[in-house]
Design brief:
Layout (H helix, E strand, L loop, with lengths): L2 H15 L4 H5 L13 H14 L7 H12 L9 H11 L7 H12 L18 H17 L12 H22 L9 H15 L3 H21 L14 H5 L5 H10 L9 H8 L6 H7 L4 E7 L19 H6 L9 H4 L10 H17 L15 E7 L4 E5 L14 E4 L5 E5 L21 E5 L2 E7 L9 E5 L7 E5 L2 E6 L2 E9 L3 E3 L4 H8 L3 H7 L4 E5 L2 E10 H4 L2 H6 L6 E4 L2 E6 L3 E6 L2 E5 L2 E2 L8 E3 L2 E3 L5 E6 L2 E6 L4 E4 L1
């Protein structure tokens, strides 16, 4: 979509959702939306349109004040809005579009900010997850570049010194992403925050290598959206997930960006990354655009590394300069790096006790000669091997056998979709509410073993007996989003359009549909939730018991003929056995076999589910930790040479 057309849509949509009074806008508490502190991306869109039209926009000073207050009080996610403020200063100061008095207030707040953990002041924000890292590094680098001679009052360093400090951290982060991809894999919101941290660097960084690498990584993030996107959404496995994003795909931050990039996706709401890319007139490479429009694509992809393997890749856990690599994949408590983790905070912090407790566990287990698992933290996002199959009519995506049996956080092992809100997935719920991490639908209390071969997937739950309140797993299957739903022979069948799905389960407990819960609709949709609840049918299918196997197979009119013919291919008791060893008679693949400790086999042949290439699909064959990469699709090509710092399109 043309950048100005997109910015006009942002402004038009924002007007529809703006609070009627300043007081109501200032009281808006959410992180997203035109009246939130991130609402200044709406005002940035006004400035960008005004620059193109030669006019002076009316900027909402109270929203700028709201954003600056978050920066001045150093609250969590203040780093999300700094890219917009930097763009305002870089592109609009001195033009009349940004009043000078407002520019001076922005300058004062940015110079007074706390940019890293070792600076004075309490820590109320998360600095260290993968997306926050690049936001803080790029902010420090660029603000220091903007004001090199200013003395930043928080720690007495000059802007020039802050620029150098941010530069060192930033270069490491860029190199790790090029080599290993993203620990927060395919995350609907945090991919957008990564882009926020990179866009200004593409344009304004003094160092050529930082400019070029930042552009390359933005392209890689967009490439991930292209190969895993479906009808303007990202219904895939995710490193981190939130309830409202997975239940209502139009709420995904990335869907708004996909509207700009691919002309498909949500046209409501506000996505800072999309506004920033439109502001700088980002041109999507033709090869990547062609990839998104492929009618059928099967992709295998690897990202991240296990903490124990990092040294083999040259990331020495004993070198304190590398500690943020381990914090980025959230293995700060791993045995290989825990001593350096204890050095991260200069004073007590909410993380201190957690790390000390893990350190003591290692010591006590070693004294007793007892085994103790490494990378124990439930937030860890270690090596992930992803398989996604997309057709015109469905998508199904899996993180293959990811940390099975470990406690989970926001990791989301698999999703299937027939389009829109017809998304299907399972979890081991951690609570009966919708905001915690994990909760009823977002994340897992105990991670399953999920494995996929093309259009067929198995998800095996063996839940730890410690969690007596949640010895069950459940299926999200919204009947009201399907055109047809049939239950027979132990299967739940669904059709939407020309896409089909079949789901069945074997376990040790009862199976039943749970009553629908109005609290979920209110959490996801706010005031509109009550009306949607009334229209909804069953969506939560429960299987009690600690040990359950779910089997899922996708199909379509093109692949199977009629919906009736698709259903007729599945026989009663097609799934037989238990979590240790089971077989499934697949209409597509014949006999498939797997188990908690057994490999996945199809017709007797083992299917590889680990140690994939970085990208393995018809448009890119790229080894993991490669120094170059090629994408080719429908006559268009894109090549990265990471050592030579060249990016070429043909």
């Amino acid at each position: 979509m043309d950048r100005l057309q997109y910015l006009q849509q942002v402004v038009a949509s924002g007007k529809l959702h703006m609070a009627p009074t300043v007081e109501e806008a200032m009281a808006h508490k959410s992180y997203h939306g035109v009246d939130s502190f991130q609402g200044l991306y709406y005002d940035l869109a006004l400035m960008e349109l005004a620059a193109a039209e030669g006019t002076v926009p009316t900027i909402r000073e109270y929203i700028i004040d709201k954003a600056l207050d978050r920066i001045d009080t150093r609250l969590d996610c203040a780093d999300f809005i700094i890219p917009a403020l930097i763009r305002m200063l870089m592109a609009h100061r001195g033009t009349g579009r940004l009043p000078e008095e407002m520019a001076q207030r922005i300058e004062k707040s940015l110079i007074g900010f706390k940019y890293w953990l070792d600076e004075p002041g309490t820590i109320q924000a998360c600095f260290f997850t993968e997306n926050h890292q690049v936001l803080f590094y790029s902010a420090e680098y660029l603000v220091g570049q903007l004001f090199p001679d200013a003395v930043f009052p928080n720690n007495g360093m000059t802007g020039r010194e802050h620029h150098a400090h941010g530069e060192a951290f930033l270069r490491r982060w860029l190199d790790w992403r090029i080599r290993f991809g993203f620990a927060e894999w395919l995350t609907q919101g945090y991919y957008m925050d990564d882009i926020l941290g990179l866009v200004n660097l593409m344009i304004y960084a003094q160092d050529e290598d930082i400019r070029v690498k930042s552009r390359m990584i933005v392209d890689l993030l967009v490439f991930d959206l292209a190969i895993h996107g479906f009808q303007g959404h990202l219904p895939t496995t995710h490193g981190r997930v939130y309830t409202d994003f997975i239940i209502e795909p139009d709420h995904e931050d990335c869907s708004h960006l996909m509207r700009f990039l691919f002309d498909e996706g949500s046209n409501e709401g506000l996505c800072g990354a999309a506004v920033m890319l439109a502001a700088v007139d980002y041109q999507i490479p033709q090869a990547i655009l062609n990839v998104y429009h492929q009618k059928e694509l099967s992709t295998r992809e690897r990202m991240s590394v296990d903490a124990a393997d990092a040294a083999a890749f040259g990331v020495d856990p004993k070198d304190f300069d590398n500690i943020m690599f381990f914090w980025g994949i959230q293995t700060y408590s791993d045995r290989v790096c825990i001593d350096n983790s204890l050095k991260v905070f200069p004073q007590w912090n909410w993380m201190t006790n957690r790390i000390r407790a893990y350190k003591e566990r290692y010591e006590l287990c070693d004294e007793a000669g007892a085994p103790c698992p490494d990378a124990p933290d439930f937030t860890a996002m270690t090596q992930v091997d992803i398989h996604t199959r997309r057709t015109e009519d469905y998508i199904i995506s899996c993180a293959q056998d990811f940390r099975k049996g470990r406690m989970g956080y926001q990791q989301h092992p698999w999703t299937a979709s027939l389009g829109g809100r017809a998304v299907i997935f399972t979890t081991n719920p951690a609570s009966l509410e919708y905001a915690n991490r994990p909760n009823r639908w977002a994340g897992n209390l105990v991670l399953p073993k999920a494995v996929q071969h093309e259009n067929t997937l198995f998800c095996i739950y063996r839940i730890l007996p410690d969690f007596v309140d949640f010895l069950n797993s459940h299926l999200y299957f919204p009947k009201h989003e399907m055109d047809e739903v049939v239950e027979r022979d132990g299967f739940i069948f669904g059709r939407k359009g020309k896409g089909y799905i079949a789901v069945t389960a074997v376990g040790v407990g009862d199976k039943y549909w749970e009553p629908k819960d109005i609290a979920m609709f209110r959490h996801v949709y706010g005031q509109e939730g009550d009306a949607l609840f009334e229209k909804a049918q069953d969506y939560e299918y429960m299987v009690q018991g600690h040990a359950t196997v779910w089997a899922v197979e996708m199909g379509s009119e093109k692949e199977n003929g009629s919906f009736e013919a698709f259903m007729a291919g599945f026989k009663a008791n097609a799934l037989a056995g238990d979590t240790h060893d089971f077989t499934f008679q697949s209409p597509t693949h014949g006999e498939m076999r797997c188990g908690w400790g057994k490999p996945l086999t199809v017709a007797g042949q083992e299917v590889a589910i680990h140690n994939y290439k970085r990208y393995d699909n018809p448009v890119s064959q790229t080894e993991f930790d490669a120094r170059s990469m090629d994408i080719a699709c429908d006559g268009a090509k894109l090549r990265f040479d990471f050592d030579a710092l060249t990016r070429s399109e043909a």
